TrEMBL record:
Protein's recorded name: Glycine reductase
GO biological process, one term: fatty acid biosynthetic process
InterPro entries named among the record's database cross-references: FA_synthesis (IPR003664), Gly_reductase_pC_asu (IPR012116)
Organism the protein comes from: Clostridium thailandense
Signal peptide: none
Highest classification ranks of the organism: Bacteria, Bacillati, Bacillota, Clostridia, Eubacteriales
Length: 383
C-alpha cells in the first residue's frame, strides 16, 4: 500500500511540475553515490545542492548515509553496498542514470569524458577515459570513435567532428574510419589547426578543442581528463569539466557516469548534468543505433581484416635490396606497422628505410621508387 501511495504521489508531483513548466515530459532521476570520495560525503552532497540550484530540471537521488538536506536518500552502509544498490535501482528503472566513483565495467565498455579546453574554452569529448573497449588498441579506438559520436549526439551535437589523437595506432584507426565512412557510415573528420591539417590531431588541437570528439585509448584519455580537470589545483581536487562520463558499449544497458575520487563539487555538479542529458536523450539507445549503422557499413569486416594483420606470421627472412639514396618521404604509416611496411617494400625489390618526421613515422625510398612504393603500401593496406 505504501508503494502504491508513493507512485501516486510521484505522478501528482510530475503533473504539478508539468503545469508549472508547461511541459509534461517525465523528469529524469539521477542517482549519486556519496561514499568513496577523497573529499568526504559533504562534498558529494554539496555537489548535489549545486546541481539542484543551477539546473533544477532533473531529480537527484542520494545513495549513501542519511542527511537532513532536502533530497531523497537511499541509505547504505558503505561504497560497496552503494554500488550494489545503484545497479539494483538501475535494473529496476527506479533511477535513469547514476554518477559514481570507480566502477568495474565489462570488457567492451569504456567511458566517454567531457572537458573544457584551456585554449579556447571549448567543450571537448574524449573517447575514451576509463574501461577497455577492446584488448586490441586499434580496434578499441575505432569503437571509441563510434561511442564518442553517440554521446556527442546525446548532448546536442548533431554532426560532430572526429579527430584522432596522434598515438601509436592512430594511422590504422584513421584508415579503418575512412573505410567505414566510404561504406556509408556518416560522420565528419575534424581538420587539425596545424598547417598540414588532416584528421590526426596534435597536442595543439587538444588545447584548442579542434574536434568535437578526440579519439584515443582509455589510458591516454584518463591522463588527459585528469590534467584538464585539476591543472589549476595541483591534482588533488578536480574542478573543471564534466567528469569521465558514461560507460558506453555496443550492448551496454546501464547509464553509469564516472567521476574520480579526487573530483570536487563543481565538477560533480556538471557530471550530474551530463548524466541527466545522456539519460534524457537516451544515449544508450543512440549507441546501439550508431553501432548498428557501423556494422551495416562493414565494421565487422574492417576489424577482422585489422586483426588478421596482427596475427603472428611465419618468420620469413627477407633480403634487403641494394642500398640507394633515399630522399622520397612517405608519411602516414603507423609506427606499429613501420617495420612490416618496410619489409613489404623489400619483398617487392624496393629499398626503404624507416624514419621519424616532425608529424610522425615515415618511410624513406629513392625518388625513382617513390610512386611504385606508394602503390605497394596502399595495396598492402598500410596507407
Amino acid at each position: 500500500m505504501d508503494a502504491t501511495k508513493k507512485i501516486v504521489a510521484e505522478v501528482f508531483n510530475e503533473i504539478a511540475e508539468g503545469i508549472k513548466s508547461g511541459s509534461f515530459e517525465k523528469r529524469v532521476k539521477i542517482g549519486l553515490t556519496t561514499f568513496g570520495s577523497e573529499h568526504g560525503v559533504e562534498e558529494m552532497i554539496r555537489a548535489a545542492e549545486m546541481a539542484k540550484s543551477k539546473y533544477g530540471d532533473f531529480d537527484i537521488i542520494l545513495i549513501g548515509s542519511k542527511t537532513e538536506r532536502n533530497f531523497e536518500v537511499i541509505e547504505v552502509e558503505d561504497a560497496a553496498e552503494g554500488h550494489k544498490k545503484m545497479v539494483e535501482l538501475l535494473e529496476k528503472k527506479e533511477i535513469d542514470g547514476c554518477v559514481t566513483q570507480h566502477f568495474d565495467f565489462p570488457i567492451g565498455v569504456s567511458t566517454v569524458g567531457r572537458v573544457v579546453t584551456p585554449g579556447k574554452g571549448k567543450e571537448l569529448i574524449i573517447a575514451t577515459t576509463t574501461g577497455t573497449t577492446s584488448t586490441n588498441r586499434v580496434e578499441g579506438m575505432i569503437r571509441n570513435a563510434i561511442s564518442g559520436i553517440a554521446v556527442a549526439k546525446a548532448v546536442g551535437i548533431e554532426k560532430p567532428t572526429v579527430g584522432i589523437l596522434n598515438l601509436d595506432g592512430a594511422r590504422g584507426v584513421e584508415r579503418a574510419l575512412k573505410d567505414l565512412k566510404a561504406n556509408g557510415y556518416e560522420f565528419e573528420f575534424a581538420n587539425s589547426l596545424r598547417a598540414d591539417g588532416g584528421a590526426i590531431m596534435r597536442g595543439n588541437d587538444i588545447l584548442a578543442g579542434t574536434p568535437d570528439i578526440m579519439v584515443c585509448d582509455s589510458l591516454t584519455g584518463n591522463l588527459l581528463i585528469k590534467i584538464f580537470s585539476a591543472f589549476t589545483t595541483c591534482g588533488n581536487y578536480e574542478t573543471v569539466g564534466y567528469g569521465y562520463g558514461p560507460g558506453i558499449g555496443e550492448d551496454y544497458d546501464k547509464l553509469v557516469n564516472i567521476v574520480s575520487r579526487a573530483s570536487g563539487a563543481p565538477l560533480i555538479c556538471e557530471a550530474l548534468r551530463y548524466c541527466s542529458l545522456c539519460a534524457k536523450n537516451k544515449v544508450l539507445l543512440k549507441a546501439k543505433d550508431e553501432f548498428k549503422k557501423a556494422k551495416e557499413s562493414s565494421l565487422g569486416d574492417i576489424i577482422e581484416k585489422l586483426l588478421a594483420k596482427d596475427k603472428p606470421a611465419n618468420k620469413e627472412e627477407i633480403e634487403m635490396p641494394p642500398k640507394k639514396v633515399v630522399t622520397y618521404v612517405i608519411p602516414g604509416i603507423d609506427i606499429l606497422e613501420l617495420e612490416n611496411a618496410c619489409k613489404t617494400l623489400w619483398r617487392k625489390g624496393i629499398y626503404s628505410e624507416s624514419g621519424m618526421g616532425c608529424t610522425g613515422p615515415v618511410i624513406l625510398v629513392s625518388d625513382d621508387d617513390g610512386g611504385k612504393a606508394e602503390y605497394v603500401l596502399v595495396e598492402a593496406g598500410y596507407k
